[in-house]
Amino acid sequence: MTKKLVILGAGIGGLTAIGELRQRKMLRNSDLEVTLIDQEFTHFQGFTLPWIMRGWRTAEQATLTPSDQALDGVRTITGTVTTIDTQRKKVLGEHFATDYDALIVALGARNNPGKVPGLAEAAAAGVAHHFYSIAEANHAHHALKDFAGGNVAVLIPSLPYRCPVAPYEGALLIHDYLIEHGRRTHTQIDIFTVEPQPMPSAGTGPGRKLMTLLEDAHIGFHPNMQCQSVDAATRLIQFQDEITAPFDLLLFVPPHEPASGLAGGPGWISVDAHTLATEHEGVWAIGDITGITTPSGRPLPKAAIMAKGHAKTAVGGALQYLGIASETTAFNGHGYCFIDTGDHESARGIGDFYALPDPAVELVGPSKELHQLKQQEERDWANLWATKPRDPHAS
Ligand SMILES: Cc1cc2nc3c(=O)[nH]c(=O)nc-3n(C[C@H](O)[C@H](O)[C@H](O)COP(=O)(O)OP(=O)(O)OC[C@H]3O[C@@H](n4cnc5c(N)ncnc54)[C@H](O)[C@@H]3O)c2cc1C
User: Are 271 and 228 contained in the same domain?
Assistant: First the structure.
């Protein structure tokens, strides 16, 4: 009898799962029906969003739609998933219902600026911006273009958030943009974060090196700052102990939450760190929607490379569960993240996040070669999936 594998989310994790199934010749296979569900079937590569803010990409270039050819052999449903019924093995949406024998949940994370008092109001008033969606990154770019100089505050009010280097990269790219446009000398840039150091999930070394890069760019770094509220009218951020910080332009990381409160309650989905299996029979969760604690007790970063690794493991686990294949490889916690440092250079944090007693991760670079490697990765993914391959000559 044909088994039903359903994948929720056609972003980085969900599409990598499809790629893995194709490689294993499991699409158009009489033993298996593969269904992919997404609310809109467009996605982005996270690292292109800071580039939109910087002005190196347009919203159109960053928006990726998987082609029919890339999804050949896959049954697709466009719709918003509202419920996963793990008892009856059913996925429900507003206009659809489908059964599964095995399920992979790859619905990602979503932004909720409303969790910090005053933040959504400051964003609505146009004095605060973020780059955690294509549209908002575009607004942030226009705000930067119009910014005449003064205080730029980069605020990380809560954990977890996607890509542990993204806000630091954002600050460095703002620095880079303002130098290029002759406005850096009359601008102070400060980062206020709830974290004790940058990239805490990578151990102490990479964060220290990143702090040196910030120092070299004359960017102030303020750790352990608990944001209480933001006041758009006075343009002040309120922290603990009545500490305040003024801003003329506020760039913030929006508080994150799981894209859907599914399969195990409203929080991040708890999975086995090596198999990605959830507590529910026949259900795996991958990518940003998971909450994984590494063997050294740190949160595993929410990053594309992790979602890709999870996807390959979960596909193996699901096929094994369905009795279709026997081969599966455990997720090993290896990964990396590029960080743009300006002047078309990138550094890269790379290593083993599962190492003991501490993660074995180092920050290498920055260099022009790493920036080119990042661009190559962007092109490779777009060429694999998207209807419109990106312009290879874009900077
Ligand atoms: C600003 C920014 C910078 C980043 N920089 C980097 C970086 O430099 N390096 C790196 O490795 N990672 C980076 N990331 C993180 C990376 O983008 C994510 O880790 C990766 O996309 C996770 O893949 P995912 O499949 O879990 O989620 P996503 O890729 O977000 O896919 C989730 C999919 O689920 C769909 N969906 C959500 N809810 C529903 C629903 N209820 N019903 C139906 N469909 C739904 C969405 O439409 C989406 O297609 C960055 C992210 C951001 C936002």
Answer: no
Residue 372 forms part of a structural domain: no
What does the angle CA 169 – CA 288 – CA 213 come to, to the nearest 5 degrees? 15
What's the rounded mean pLDDT across residues 213-232?
Answer: 97
Residue 268 lies in a domain: yes
Whether the CB of 131 sits within 6 Å of ligand 1: yes
Which tens digits make up the pLDDT trace of 226-276? 999 999 999 999 999 999 999 999 999 999 999 876 545 568 999 999 999
pLDDT score, position 390: 42
| Max Cα–Cα distance, the chain, nearest Å | 69
173 with 92, same domain: the answer is no
Same domain, 123 and 217: yes
Pairing of strands 219-222, 150-156: unpaired
Closest-lying ligand 1 atom to the alpha carbon of residue 133:
53
Rg (CA), the chain: 21
Q: Tokens 């994790």 identify what position? A: 13
Expressed in angstroms and rounded, the spacing between residue 302 Cα and the centre of ligand 1 is 9
Range of the domain at 171: 113-256
Give the model's pLDDT for residue 96: 96
pTM of the model: 0.95
Ligand 1 pocket check for 335: Cβ under 6 Å: no
| Boundary of a domain, candidates 256, 274, 293 | 256
Q: What is the rounded end-to-end Cα distance, in angstroms, of the chain?
A: 51
Q: Is the dihedral of CA 277, 278, 281, 282 positive or negative?
A: negative
Residue nearest to atom 15 of ligand 1 (CA): 303
Over the chain, what is the mean pLDDT? Answer: 94
Q: How many structural domains compose the chain?
A: 2
Q: How far, in Å, is the centroid of ligand 1 from the Cα of 185?
A: 36
Is residue 229 lining ligand 1, measured as CB closer than 6 Å? no
Q: What are the tens digits of pLDDT across the range 289-333?
A: 999 999 999 999 999 999 999 999 999 999 999 999 878 899 999
